[in-house]
Amino acid sequence: MSSKILFNDFQRQWQDIGHDVLEAVERVGKSGWLILGEAVKNFENELANLWQLPYAIGCANGLDAIEIALKCLGLQPGDLVLTTPLSAFATTLAIVRAGGVPVFVDVDDSGLIDLDLCEKIFSQDSAIRYFVPVHLYGHALNLQRLRQLKRKYKLKVVEDCAQAIGAKSKDTLVGTVGDIAITSFYPTKNLGAMGDGGALLVKTKKHERLAKSLRDYGQSKKYIHDHVGLNSRLDELQAAILHDALLPRLNDFIKRRCHIAQRYLTEIKNPNLLFVPIPKDSRSVWHLFPVLLKNSKQRTSFQQHLVNCGVASALHYPKLISDQTALKKIGKVHILSSLQCAKAFSQHQVSLPIHPYLQEEEVSRVIEACNSWAAE
Ligand SMILES: *Cc1c(COP(=O)(O)O)cnc(C)c1O
Question: Looking at ligand 1, which atom is closest to the CA of residue 189?
Answer without folding.
Answer: 1
